[in-house]
Amino acid sequence: MTRLIVAAGGGGDAVAAAMLHAALYGDRDQAVILTYAWDRLLIDPLPGPRRPADFTGLERLTPAVWRVPAQARPIAPAGSTLPRLAAELPHTFALLDPYQGAEGLTHQLEDLVSHLEPESIDLLDVGGDILARGYEPTLRSPLADALALAACCQVNAPIRLLVAGPGLDGELLSADLHDVLGSVVHTFTASDAETISPALEWHPSEATGVLAATARGARGTCEIRDAGLPVPLTDDSPTVHEVDLDDAVNRNQLARAIMATEHLDEAEAYSREICGYSEIDYERNKALWLRDQQPATLDPSAIWPQLDQFEAEARARGVTHTTFRRITEALNLSGSQRDDLRQLLINSRQEQYDAPLWRIPIAAE
Asked: Residue 256 to residues 18, 124, 300: CA-CA distances in angstroms?
């Protein structure tokens, strides 16, 4: 049997989809994970999602959908985590191309569903920002999820919407989602997290990394992103909830507005109108800012006092965990230095590595 999982936000949602498939279906079924090639600036210096023309080595899966095999490569300077995921995980990764708007995504989905005739279709979002109304002050990246939701609700096939780790992306509070979250489909365990553990050793996703950490038992408050958003780690964090697809569409004003869009820039215009911004504009502005910055040198002798100061300030804010992305940006290092910094910290202070997060020690430690 074939299971189709649509990773609503791309990036880490695709990794979470692999964990979900292993948890719900095990080895008995094959999984096709349909996802954007939309990695943030830590991986891809180009703002926005990548399209098929940004890769070499893609394989035609259907007339409208391309498969990303392990040998595919993004064309420089673009970057993408998908080829490496395809090499390390036992799933087929297919590319969602949003440049023809929600209409184009709907056509891709319909083409893939017709070709695969999947036993089930799940639309997966980590964190729950797919349920945003559009005006929430903490909302940061509504467009990718809204496009996926707008497409899925127009496909003539039963699609189940699943939200994993309510609130873990720092965009909506878990309490704000309780009125729409349905029954718990699964609670991730440490065993589930092991299925994606090797990928999380290098993949920069924060929300999925936090999800895996809570599945292993991490509790407290985790600080994420460049803005240092505090995310509570609770017993509800590793849960997966089913959500009524119609209820999600009724809440998501942006998804409703963009259903007939035929170009990504149309969808962006609606995002600016409804939410007040476009996340691709944010990436464009940040990419320009990063281009003009001189990142700090990764000097181990200088890192430790900077890290100690960061940890002291985080501890004062009640933070118990953080991500390596957050540390990298807090220390004014570039995304390309993240892996080296991560290895330095783990090798030197192994006791603080609460995989895949970094634990903030209490003052007495």
From this structure: 28, 18, 50
CA–CA dist 286, 283 (Å, integer) = 5
pLDDT digits (tens, 9 = 90+) for 66-121: 999 999 999 999 999 999 999 999 999 999 999 999 999 999 999 999 999 999 99
Under DSSP, the state recorded for 50 is: B
Return the closest-CA partner of residue 37 out of 53, 22, 51, 18. Answer: 51
Residue 101: C-alpha distances to residues 97, 150, 244, 266, 268 (Å): 8, 10, 23, 7, 9
Q: Which amino acid is at 91?
A: H
- The residues near 61 (Cβ < 8 Å, ≥ 6 apart) are 67, 92, 94, 112, 115
Residue with tokens 């460049």: 226
Q: How many residues does the chain have?
A: 365
Task: Scan for tokens 């595919």, then name that residue.
Answer: 72
Local structure of residue 29 (DSSP, 8 states): S
Q: Report the distance separating Cα 275 and Cα 287, nearest Å.
A: 21
**Given the structure tokens 């395809």, which residue do they identify?**
86
Q: Who's near 138: CB < 8 A, 6+ residues apart? A: 170, 171, 172, 173, 229
* Helical residues (DSSP H) of 189-296, grouped into ranges: 190-194, 197-200, 206-215, 245-251, 253-257, 264-275, 279-291
Q: Do the Cβ atoms of 73 and 83 come closer than 8 Å? A: yes
CA distance 187 to 246: 24
Q: What is the pTM of this model?
A: 0.96
- Whole-Å CA distances, 205 to 141, 145, 297: 14, 16, 24
Please give the torsion angle defined by the CA atoms of residues 128, 133, 135 and 141, in that order, rounded to the nearest 10 degrees: 40
What does the CA dihedral 311, 315, 319, 320 come to, rounded to 10 degrees?
80
pLDDT per residue over 280-325, tens digit each?
999 999 899 888 777 677 888 889 999 999 999 999 999 999 999 9
